[in-house]
Design goal:
Elements lengths: L2 H6 L2 E3 L1 H8 L3 E10 L3 H8 L3 E4 L7 E9 L4 H7 L5 E9 L5 E8 L5 E7 L7 H7 L2 H6 L1 E15 L4 E12 L11 E3 L2 E8 L6 H8 L9 H9 L9 H11 L3
Parallel strand pairs: 1-3
Antiparallel strand pairs: 2-7, 2-11, 3-8, 4-5, 4-8, 5-6, 6-7, 8-9, 9-10, 9-11
Length: about 250
């Protein structure tokens, strides 16, 4: 079954209904990584239990995310150390609507993820938000660090407050102004699935993944991109997960 046909088998949901039921700006999440060759089977398993986001007659969307960090990549290193209370700052462009936001993701010491955002494409537009959460001094040190482009499918469980995003055809590069002169890294065979819910103890996608032999693995697209683009970066904590992801990418 072709991907387009697989997507067409789902009942659709609008962005308004999705946000009404599952905006999930304060949530728990889990990640799963698997081979793109398995994607259609995963979608077949999900079809009876999930709706799919549809906008402007589209069910597959382009995303662009630019991450900001300090010159010494403080946010990356905090994640690498397993710091419980940490942040990421990014600009996100939603290809389906053309909307852009500056977003702050806060991983709390309770393991939840809080996402806060303001409309705009420049950090200065989000200064009040940034100052309130990471402080003026750190805000002043932020600079573009990584650019990521990918395709996304978004599913919402028909009964539970459980959202699943499936990201693939991922391209990492250095920031926009340097992109034309800097090599990019493309992952053609990897799908990153993320389950997002207020309560993940009884999530459906985990059961589907387990049936397919897919294991849970936690590595953000920012950290994964840093490992791919900046091979000299500290990576001990991520080495096993990164090796597993590379094995998927190069298996075909």
């Amino acid at each position: 079954m072709e991907l387009e046909k697989a997507l067409a088998t789902f009942d659709s949901i609008s962005i308004e209904s999705l946000l009404d039921r599952a905006a999930l700006m304060d949530r728990s999440d889990r990640k799963f990584v698997f081979d793109k060759a398995t994607l259609e089977d995963i979608l077949g398993d999900c079809g009876p239990q999930y709706n799919i986001l549809e906008m402007n007659a589209q069910r597959l969307f382009d995303y662009e995310t630019e991450y900001f960090d300090t010159a010494d990549r403080l946010f990356y290193l905090q994640h690498h150390r397993g710091k419980a209370n940490r942040y990421k700052v990014r600009r996100r462009l939603y290809g389906s609507t053309g909307e852009e936001f500056i977003e702050v993701k806060h991983k709390t010491n309770k393991g939840n993820t809080q996402k806060l955002r303001v409309a705009g494409n420049g950090l200065s537009m989000a200064n009040p938000l940034l100052h309130a959460h990471i402080g003026e001094s750190l805000t002043a040190q932020l600079q573009p660090s990584l650019l990521v482009r990918y395709k996304r499918i978004t599913l919402l469980h028909k009964e539970k407050n459980e959202k699943v995003t499936l990201d693939f055809d991922i391209t990492w590069g250095q920031p926009e102004e340097e992109l034309n002169s800097t090599p990019t890294v493309n992952f053609q065979n990897v799908v990153i699935a993320e389950v997002k819910s207020i309560n993940l103890h009884f999530n459906t996608f985990q059961s589907i993944a387990k049936k397919r032999g897919i294991r849970e693995g936690s590595l953000s697209k920012y950290c994964l991109g840093c490992l791919a683009i900046y091979p000299e970066i500290k990576q001990n904590r991520f080495k096993q997960t990164y090796k597993h992801i590379l094995s998927i990418e190069h298996a075909s």
